[in-house]
Structures are given as structure tokens and as C-alpha cells.
UniProtKB/TrEMBL annotation, chains A, B:
Its cofactor is FAD. The keyword Flavoprotein applies. This is Acyl-CoA dehydrogenase. Keywords: FAD, Flavoprotein, Oxidoreductase. Residues 558-682 form the Acyl-CoA oxidase C-terminal domain. Residues 184-293 form the Acyl-CoA oxidase/dehydrogenase middle domain. It comes from the Bacteria. Pfam families: ACOX, ACOX_C_alpha1, Acyl-CoA_dh_M, Acyl-CoA_dh_N. Residues 329-489 form the Acyl-CoA oxidase C-alpha1 domain. Belongs to the acyl-CoA oxidase family. The keyword NAD does not apply. Residues 91-179 form the Acyl-CoA dehydrogenase/oxidase N-terminal domain.
Amino acid sequence: MSSLTPSSAAASLIRKFGTNRILSPHLRSLCAISALPLPNVSVVTDPERPAAYVWSMTGLREYLDGPHKAARDLVRDGLAANAGLLDAGLELSRAEYRDKVLEVMQQITAEGHTARGFPKEFGGQGDLGGFIAGFETLAFGDLSLMVKAGVQFGLFAGAILHLGTSRHHDEYLTDAIEGRLLGCFAMTETGHGSNVQALGTTATYDPATEEFVIHTPTPAARKDYIGNAARHGRMAAVFAQLVVGGETHGVHCLLVPIRTKDGDPLPGVTLSDCGAKLGLNGVDNGRIVFDQVRVPRTALLDRYAQVDADGNYSSEIENPDRRFFTMLGTLVQGRVSVGGAAINASKVALTIAIRYADRRRQFGAPGSADEALLLDYRMHQRRLLPLLARTYALHFAQAELVEEFARLFGGDGVKDDHDQRALEAQAAGTKALGTWHATETIQMCREACGGAGYLAENRLATLKADTDVFTTFEGDNTVLMQLVAKGLLTNYRESFGKLDPLGTARFIAAQAVEIAVEKTALRTLIERLRDVVPNRNDAADPDAGLRDDAYHSGMLRFREEHMLAGVARRLKRGIDDGVEPFEAFNRCQDHVIAAGRAHVERVVAEAFLAAVQAAPEGAARERLRDLYDLHALVTIESERAWYIEHGRLSGARSKAITALVNELCAVVRPYAGELVDAFGVPGAAVDVPMVVPSQHE
Amino acid sequence: MSSLTPSSAAASLIRKFGTNRILSPHLRSLCAISALPLPNVSVVTDPERPAAYVWSMTGLREYLDGPHKAARDLVRDGLAANAGLLDAGLELSRAEYRDKVLEVMQQITAEGHTARGFPKEFGGQGDLGGFIAGFETLAFGDLSLMVKAGVQFGLFAGAILHLGTSRHHDEYLTDAIEGRLLGCFAMTETGHGSNVQALGTTATYDPATEEFVIHTPTPAARKDYIGNAARHGRMAAVFAQLVVGGETHGVHCLLVPIRTKDGDPLPGVTLSDCGAKLGLNGVDNGRIVFDQVRVPRTALLDRYAQVDADGNYSSEIENPDRRFFTMLGTLVQGRVSVGGAAINASKVALTIAIRYADRRRQFGAPGSADEALLLDYRMHQRRLLPLLARTYALHFAQAELVEEFARLFGGDGVKDDHDQRALEAQAAGTKALGTWHATETIQMCREACGGAGYLAENRLATLKADTDVFTTFEGDNTVLMQLVAKGLLTNYRESFGKLDPLGTARFIAAQAVEIAVEKTALRTLIERLRDVVPNRNDAADPDAGLRDDAYHSGMLRFREEHMLAGVARRLKRGIDDGVEPFEAFNRCQDHVIAAGRAHVERVVAEAFLAAVQAAPEGAARERLRDLYDLHALVTIESERAWYIEHGRLSGARSKAITALVNELCAVVRPYAGELVDAFGVPGAAVDVPMVVPSQHE
């Protein structure tokens, strides 16, 4: 399977199915790319005839793996070695499963998988890009392991690294990185998940003892859903309102021991278990309540703000909102990682479902004793192949994001504010799109495999259950899309206002609305797009240019900018008319979120296009090109009502797009198996009974 | 909460929130329906001022419960009494959970819940409508219990009743109905789920011993996913190819013992376990392999076909396809039941998510110390309230379906073929739409509750996992939608051809295409619709008539009939052009399925409208009317691209529909809590910690 010429593929199909018409579109395209005549005897009798070029799957897989191939392969090998974990969640009790996950996590830690992203002086390799790539690859395996590793190394150790200073690094970082000191990232509370600026937990400085008193003042201030809290965590990075000298300075992070080495809760700390969850039952999510727990002054992670022994608070960042969001920068890594994990989980599901559809037959095909393959049904192609194309698109967008993240966070620590805000928005958007995509894709794959897909042994069930929370953790997707739109509307300038809609609306109204809405700029944009975006007058030739890159980009950019300008206008008009900012915002909240999404979709499509253009010449690039066209056109098709409403598409052209999407599905179909092979998901994760039935029969 | 006047509701909101603008749309509508002036001091000071009418939730709930209120209430009481079962799946081992489900099933059987649908002579009440209504109501509780009861009473006992004759009834039916004889419905095989006409299991008559020999000739012919097979079933209704005198007569059903009373497999029977599943782990799905298992001649359920001692086969139904589909009529009840169960599971999820959204606050609202309620955010309304409206629509469509089912199957056994085909299509369509709706709704509810929604204690996780298979069991939804379209295209006439796409295409091509495609008829239809369906010339007043019933019906009917005619034309043209029938069908498979869906959506919307019109006058009807408008307009909105492409909607009017949908969400929002209360889901099923936190704190 590693290398197959189109002509031999065509010949093999002809041998297998005869010149059966069902497969003729596939044969036609196979022949077309190999410059063969349409199927005839000479192909069958001369299967080894040299093709115009070689279709190398190995090359495509390497291209997808990109610069972090080594990190990915190391995780792939580890996954294969720990394949047993994939069944652990099904057969073990919850407590046993959690312990098993911990055991494997500590084992892979010992093998050096997880330290990669940390500075060399603490045993790491200073390779942030490889760290994220490796983390993403964990999503090919047991997702509880991935999430637990994310909590321990990304969130807990990450908070120490990014928010602490040398004394914290020296004291804790190596133990945290090597998995000896297990910790929690105690941010979310029962009452506040999205609006973390309003957390209720307090950390009050007592100058008499030079201690902070950590306290949970109300039931709503209980720390909730905290990974590692129910069973394994010994310390927590606790986010709390810092109160010094009677004055509240906003949310800061402190290291608070919560358990003894024997696992007993420390005095004043009440720990409980969130119990069974829809998925991720190998992660011990729990709750923490603090009753006047005292920690030394040095427990404050004091990179961005300090409290001296006498109780004087100081910070180099004067604006409290800006300070808060700077500290929250630690969340970016989590969002980048979860987005990547979601995309990789989609690859697992598609690998399984497409292989199944390429061997499962149901209902009769004419002139053949066999029934037809599921993947030869148009509806089945329509359900799975656009999702395959979007997975490729998101893969490349994610790869771009990881490089930018590594550039900004992995370097000398000097970050440009504008770049960082842009990165945060991009991470938020990719996370939201990638995790919604995973939910949709895995669901579709499950349905496409019928009852077999419902059995745990075929893995889709677990994938679905484990990834479901991705859309709401590390930032609820709808809130993240608002963040994206806000960044665009304010052009990332001075956008340190609160995350809440009110702050956005006020900010837009007061300062920056002109940036996006400025009319002459918009007019110029529309002029610029007019040439590449045909409008209703395209009726004469509705198919013209549908596979033209400039057309796709033009359409996606037009939608993005038109929507953003519309939102800005509506917000400004509302405020000008004296509408309360919350209501002004709320009236167009759906519009705001759609605008954010339009932006991310455009960026993702352009990342895919750039990857196609940068690919080495040859068959793999041609296949990527087909997939890209499919993706771009499906994206436009899904919003075709909007395009028609806004005069950018005629009814005839809209129908032509749908017809071309169907056609492109048929073009991609013969390569679908190879396209999922190129994801390089280890066999342990995808060789399930319904795909490899001989294992069980 | 049982009775609240709009004026007191308005006053209470004003007391609670002041004259805060966030809530003003709700206040406005509350005031409007109670004929009050817009909020002012007099409302606040006179909260008990008599309203124009009383909003009675009790009345609405009774209206929803309809003629089978007693059956529903009996199940509600049973559910409350067995509330412990709701947690059983989380804490027990799979084996223990299965046994617990069996125990509760036998207990409710003893209480008379499950016999309701059977003839009185076997201990039943002959009340088929009440039986289905009660079964649907089981979906408020543990879904493993519901499915296991469905297998035992609907499928196994149903097969004996519908396919057997008096000797089978006398020997087995009472024991089956009373849960003493546990049985399987062994139809699906590993190799064949949708295409059951191609099952591989054989039942070969041996005249020498007057026995049938049941055999599994290939691994693909293994019975798979069979409920009750892994642990509890002692007998199976086995669907097999009947071979008599060397001739195969197609699929028939025979009763085959599989286990001893002690639970050991009988000789020649190999039983295995499907193991863990995504959900429904309280049901013991398993696999059955037969190795030359002999059963007496009388094991054949011989209502529609008989084999005499000498091995002469006879049937009153000569056409083998027609015979097969007549026997398959037993599946209709399963489809009706699953559709209803899915709709009820959606009610549970919406009750939880809407109550949560009506108490959960996040992010600041101006002029208030409190943060804003989630349900006051437009995006949250947009995500949940159209689903609430569709749940009502499906509820009423399902109620219509149940009555028609009871009429046809519960009567004297004389069925009109045309009516039965129409019922089968309607059951298929409602099942597909209802189960897709459940998957979408429960997913949305889970996401709308964030991390809390992911915890098993809040029930959405279990609901999601348990209902997920509904879209593919009892008929894969895509295959069912093809069945719907096929019935419409052939006008249910002589449509006894095979279920497969090929048969459909051939049939359409050969005989009946004129029925749907006849051009003059289509032209008449379009003329008829022109008056009520404004086209592009509506730009002058895009809002006109958007809440007009005739407009909604006209639009939905236009789409349905236009799509069906288009499919018929394409199929016919393909065949006329000499395209292989499979390929001709396959080229428009997406179109076929969309046409089926368009039909079901129109029927569902009309059922809702009929229910609104039939409701007693008063506030409840007004609220239903708002919900109906919301549902009808969201349905049109979701296909607005198609309507614009086909000249039935202008861009301006399309935007006006979206604006009105947003507005209707705001109109419905203040009643959302009462509208879910009216579903009457017992507290045990919905009083989860995130909604009633005091229980756990």
C-alpha cells in the first residue's frame, strides 16, 4: 500500500470489479491522472505499464507530519507499546482505570515524551513545537491519558513555568515535569467557568504570619471539574482573588498543597470526586473546597505581580485587565493543544469509518454477485468525504498555528503584544472549529458504521464520548468565537478589556469601530473582490472558475469582512441610539459568532491552499488539490444562502457548486483509503474488529 | 408554577430585575398577552391585577398527554418508584446493571405496564395506542429498561403475535407477555443489517424428521447485536432463508430455543457477548451462531406461509417480495416506538438544559449585581428554543402516527394495503426525523450546559450515549428516508419491490414515474402555490405574511413536491438514457433522501398546526401558536438557500425570516420553563444537581 501507481490501481480495480459501471468514475479519474486511456484491455493486460508519476503515500504522510515527525513518531511508538490502555476504560473500574492511566503517563514521562517542551535546565529540550505535536499525537490513543498529561504538563507545570519565577522553577519544575509531583490547575469554579475574572476563591495576605489564606467563601466558589483533584494531585495551582491590605487585585495564581504523600487531604482542604462522566473516565476530575488554608507568601506565582513581606502589592502591568489577560496567556497552550487533539481524534474516526465503508457491502449492485460498497454510495461519500477534506484543512491550519505558537512562546520570551493577541484569537478560533469538527465527524462516522459503530470494540463510541467535552473545556466554543470576533473588530489593539460581551460592546462603541467599519475601506474591498467573485450575472456560465483559488479566497474573504463590518455597524448604531451596551451586543450575538467563524473558516481554507502550493510536485499534490477544492466549495456551499442573500451568488451558480461538490466526492473517493493511511494512525488504534474481522472470527 | 398570570409574571420579573432592559422583550410580550401597558409602576404595585386569561400549564400538559394520559401516568409513577435505576448504569458492573434492568422490567411487567397492547385473551388490554404511549414514556427513565422492554414485548412477543398462529399464541404468548419467557428478535446479522432480505442464516426443512435445521453457513451470517442474546434470552425469533425441498422461499421467522432454564446455551447454539457499547449497557446484546440446530416443523411462525409435514410450502401471498414485506410489517411497531422514545428523550434533555439556562448566570449585565442568565443570551435562545419548538412539532406528529397505527393494527386485523404502506412510510420518516432530532438536541443541550453537562450526575451524558444508536437501529435513517421517498414516488402502489436502491430505480423507471412527475399536475400545483408563496417580487414588503399558516404550508409543500418531481424526472431520464439503474439511482441519492426529509418535515409541521388549531382557546394555544410559527419558520430558514435557488424567496425576505426567528425566540423565552414543565417529565429524571444544587451542597 505504500506506493501504488494510478495505472496499477486502475488495473487492480478492473481486475476486481470488471468494467462494472459503478466504479467507472473512479476508474476514469485514476486513468486521467495516470494519463491512461479509459479502461480497456490494454490496461488489464499491462498493469505494470509505467505511469506518468508515482503516487507515494509515504511522501504524503511525511508532508503531513511536517517538521515534528520525530516527536510524532515517538508518540506513535509509545501508543503501539501501550495499546492495552485502549481497552482499559471498558473493562476496569473507574478507580482502576484512573490508576492505569497514571501508570502509563508516568511511564511515557520516563521515556522523555512529555518534557520536550520545557527549558533544558529542567530536563526538557526546549522544543515547544515538537511538544505540542507530540501531545496532539497522543489523541490517536487513549484520550484520558492525553488529557491527564495535558493537565499535568501543559496546565500545572505550565503555570509554574509561565507564571512563576526561579524559586518556583527550581523547587517544583523538575518534579512536575518528571511526573513525581502531580498537580492540578484549579481555575474553574462551580459558579464560574467562562467568566473566570469573577472567580470567588480568595487568597488574603496576612502580614502577621507572611502567609496567604486560601478560602472558598461560597458554594459557587468551589473549584470544580479539576483534573487530578479527585485522586492523584498533591498540589494545585489555585486561581483566586488576591486580597492584600483589604484591597482586591484581581485573579492571581498560587501553589497550594492539597494532599499528603499518602494521598490524604491536607487540613482545611475538602476534596471530592466529580464521579462518572460521559467520557474521559481515566481522568480523576474532582472538586476542591478551601477552609482558611494557609500557604507561605512565596506560594504566589509572582512573575507578573509580587507581594512583599510587609504586604505591598506591585506589578509591572498597571492595568488590572491587561495583567489578568497576560496571566491567562497560559491558557493559549491548552487551547492550541486541544484543537490539535480534536483534529487528530477526527483522523482516527475517519480512518476507521472510511476503511469500513471501503469493505462493507450492502444492497445489490447490478451485474455483480457482490453487493455495493458503502463508499460507492453518493450519500455515504457526501457524509464522509467533505469531513475528510476539512480534517486535512484543519491539520494544515493547526500546523501553522503550532509554528506561530512555538515562535512566540518558545523564543526569548520577548513577545509583541499585537502578535500575542492575534495568536490567542487564532488559537481560540482553531480550537473552536477543530473541536466542533471532531464532534460532528465522530458522530457522522459512528452513524456511518451503523450498529457496529455503537460497539465499544470498534472504538468510535469511546472516541465520541471522550472528545465530546472538547467543545466546552479550555474555553467554551461560543465564547471563544466571540473572542475571535472581538479581536478582529478591535484589530487586537488595546483589547485588554474584559472577556464579557458588555466590555466588547463598550469598547467597540467607544474607540475602535472605525477600524473595521470604515466605509471607504469596505468599498475598496468590495471593488477588489468584484473581479474574482462573480455575482448574479454569472448565470451565463455558472460553472466558470469554480475551481479557481482566487474565487474561493475572494468569496471567503468577502463573507468574513462583510460580516465583521456588519457587526461593527450594528454595535455602533445600537450604542449611538442609546441602547444599553449589553442589549446592543446581545441583539447581534449570533451575528458576532458567525463573523468569528467566517474568519476562522477563511484562515483554515487559506492554510490548506498554502499547504497545497508548498507541496512537492506530483500526484500527492494533485490529490491534495482535489481535497482542497472539495473543502473550499463545501465551505461556500454551506453558506450559500448568505452568499445569495448578499448578491454574491446566483441560484444557478449555487446549484453548480453543489453539483461540483458531488463530482469532487467521486474524484476523491478512489484515494480515500490512501488519504486516511497518510494520517499515520497506528494500527493499534484503528485495527478494530469491524475493519479487520479476521482478528475475531 | 402550575398557574401564573402573565401580569403577575411580568410583575415578578420587574420586581426581580427592575426595569432592566435585558428583559424588556420578555416583559413586553408578557404585558402584551395580558393586555397590560408596558412595564410601569402600576404593574409593580398591583401584581394581582386580574389578567385577561389564565395561563394554565396543567391544561397544556393534559393536552400533550392526549388520549393516553393514564398509560403515560402509570409509567411516570413507575419511573418515580424505580428512580434508583437511573444511577445503576453508572455504578454497577455491566453484568449487575443488566440483571438490575431485567429485575425492574419484570417488576413493571407484573404491575401491568407492558401487557397493555396485547389481546385480552392473553392477559392484555387490547390497547395498542396506550401501549405505545406508555412505551414512549419509558424514555423519560433508564433507556436500557426501555430498550429491553422493547425487545421483549415489542419485538419478540410482537413477532409471536403478528407472525404466529394460535398454537404459538397459546403456547408462548402469555409467558412472553408476563416476562417469564425471555426472548430475542434475531434478525440482524453481521453481514446484513439494512438489507435483511439477503440474510444468510438458513432454515432447511427435513421431511424425514419433520424438523427445520437452523444453520449459520458463514461468519457474515452470524446473528449480531441481538438484544437479550448475551445473557437472558431463552428463545429467539430467528429470521432465516426458508429452504424446502431444495427451494429457497425467502426470509421467514422461526422460534428457536437457545438456552436452558439455567442459562446454558443449548447444543449447537454458540452465544457470545457484544461487550461494552457506547450506551444501553443494561441491555445484553449478543451474537448467535447456529450449527445445524433442529427445531420441530411447528417452530415456523406460519401466519403468512406454511410448510406441511411432507414438505409442501404454501402461502396466501404469492409474490415473494410482498410476502417478505408483509412479514416485515412487525417492524412498524418498533419504528413507531423508537421515534416516540427519541422525542421523549429530547424532552428530558431540554427540560434539564432549559431549567439550567434559566438559573445559570455568567458574565455581567448592566445595572445589576447579578450576571446575566444564559437563557437571556440570544445565542443560547437560538441554540435551544428552535429545538424546543421542533420537539413540540414532533410530539404532535408522533401522536397522530400512534393513532393511525392503533387504528390499523389494533382493530379487526383487516388492513388496507395502501394505508399500511402509507403508515410504514410515515413511521419510517417520523422515526428518522425524531431520532436525528434527539441526537442533535441532546448534543446541543450537553454543550449548552458546559462542563456540568459532561458529568454523569446531570444525566445528559447518559441520555446522549443511550440514544445515539437510535439513528441507526430499527432501520438506518438514511435507508428509511429512501423508503419514504420511494413510497411517495410510487404513491404506495404495488411498491412491494425490494428495499434496495436498485429496486426503487427500476420500479420508478418501469412503471410509476408518471404518478409523481406528470407535468400538468406539477404545473397545477405550482399555480396553486403561487398565491401563497411570494417569490422574488416580495422585496417591497419582505415581512408580509410570514406568520401566515398558508404561507408555511405552501412553502413546505412546494419544496416537497418540487423535490419529488425532480427526483422522479432525474431517475426517469437516467433510465431513458440507458444508465444502469444503480448508477441512475446513486447519482441522485442525496436528492432522494432530501426529498423524503422534505416530505416528513411538511407532515410534522402540519401536525403541529393541526394541534394548535384543535387546542382549547386561551393562553396555552397562543403559546403553542408562537412555538408553531417558530418551528415553521426555522424549518423554512434552514432550507432558505434552496428556496432562493428555486425563486421562492428573495434575499430580503430570507433575511426577514431570520430576523423573525430571532424575535420569536425572544417571545417564547419567558415561557420556556413552563413549556418544558408541560412535558411532565418526572422529577426523578430531571432534578439533577446542576439544576437543583441544594440537593448536593
